[in-house]
Design brief:
- It is a single chain.
- The chain is an alpha/beta fold and 508 residues long.
- The chain is built from 16 helices and 19 strands.
- The chain has three domains: 5-279, 3-Layer(aba) Sandwich (Rossmann fold), CATH 3.40.50.620; 349-450, Up-down Bundle (Four Helix Bundle (Hemerythrin (Met), subunit A)); 454-507, no CATH class.
- Helices cover 43% and strands 17% of the residues.
- Helix 2 (86-94) packs across helix 3, helix 12 runs parallel beside helix 14 (426-443) and helix 15 packs antiparallel against helix 16.
- The protein binds one RNA strand of 74 nucleotides through helix 1, strand 5, helix 6, strand 11 and helix 8.
Amino acid sequence: MQALYIHNTLTRKKELFKPINPEVVGMYVCGPTLYSDVHIGNCRTFTSFDIMYRYLQHIGYKVRYVRNITDVGHLEDEVAGTGEDRIGKQARLKKLEPMEIVQRYAFGFREVMGLLNILPPSIEPLASGHIIEQIEMTQQIIAQGYAYVHEGNVYFDVEKFAQKHNYGILSGRNLEDQLNNTRDLDGQEEKRGRLDFALWKKAKPEHLMRWNSPWGEGFPGWHIECSAMSQKYLGQTFDIHGGGMDLIPTHHTNEIAQSVGCCTHAPVNYWIHTNMLTLNGQKMSRSLGNVFLPVELFTGMKLAANSPSATPSQALLAEKHPLFDKAYNPMVVRFFMMQTHYASTLDFSNDALQASEKGFNRLMESYNTLYKITPEKTSSFDIKKIQEDCYAAMNDDFNTPVLISHLFECARIINLVNDKKETLTEPDIDLLKKIYQNFIEGIMGITREEQSGKSAEALNGVMNLVLNLRKKAKDNKDYATSDEIRNKLQDAGIQIKDGKEGAAWAML
RNA sequence: GGUCCUGUGGCCGAGUGGCUAGGCUCAGCUCUGCAAAAGCUGCUACUGCGGUUCGAAUCCGCACGGGACCUCCA
């Protein structure tokens, strides 16, 4: 087993990863709230944890990866306790059942995850399917004395909790600072303390999603579902809990409080937080309105105002997207994301994407070349060392940018060998194939585009014919014809690449 | 206002106190009927000012710039 170091938010340090059970890892990641379409910032988080999931498995762990779907109880104004359930609001506006909204966004979410080749988690629990567990946990917290009931609502008593436990252990903030940084908020009178948060909310008459509980009809608070579901599937203490770093001060802080308040011990050993995706240096978030959608990035087009859905397979597109010069393949997007470490902000721009795309294509081209090079008796490179470097990069808190730099070193070697400027033995070539398979495909999750099927075969045949005709023209020094073929194909979206051993072609 | 993070070459982006990350751009070269593509080579940067140190992009202080959180957010 590799010695893996992970940056733990709890300690703000890189720590050697030691799972509770030596062979099994329990990992929980906060998934989406299905009140609108998943945006590209969300995708970054899930991509980052996908890499970790893949790598943990690659180095030999059995991983139970739980990523929830929140489909209830998410208030628009959690602290004030006003506002209505987001999903319920969407449903009313669109005259749909709440579960219709959830179904639609869940479908779109999974499709986007699939396009980005993000593996499905082992368990994807719905909050609405775990109301009983959430009620039971709330009861336990009340029994422990850390929650109180007020007219059908149940609130967590943060100040009482803080007398015995460190409430700000994750965020590093002390309670007094948080209490003093008060802003004027409405609807606070039901709570005893400013930082108290709802475990259970009484449903107003117009509220659509409601369940019976010991405190009357209502719905669970935002934070309790993660505590209840992680405990159910991973146990009272598990190895890794992840999410976006914007969840640290409220959601994850309250999750810890709930679990400790319920069971008296810390729920998670390693907290991992991914940084935000920015657009022109500003965080992409729904509240700022600067989000763009995966389908827009993948097509280079803007979603039509009347599109019934933003799910890539169903979206109606309008004009060219002002932010992008072109469409970007989901694999390029994945690669682009991995060129930045998960804990750094990632700034989206057309220039940066294009730079990534070129590098990506070059790397993938070297993958094809790797299968064409011929072995020699000696090697002029130390391939084993590069493999070790690749593992070292991943073991150092999943450092994918450094991993990628080593892969580009491989690409350079492959090209040099292909040019007969350097040599590799057969075992070294096989080792390179293994490195590419393991790291590019297995761990980075990048799939090679393989053209197959009847139409691809037919196109191949046609192109071979065209290239032969062009070669004949060139042999006859009929450059007018050969250039015409080249230019017309270019217009049709096919690029001719003349090489030493004949011409190749590629779709633009 | 409070708490915290951050500032790297034309651009993006890694960097564990000493050993030129990497990608893109650009330049030169190879290849080529021309071009494109591809490949090779080159381009030694760390916001400013102090300090610690034999030595600092890396540690400390101050200043300035950027950002996050404190309110739903991945």
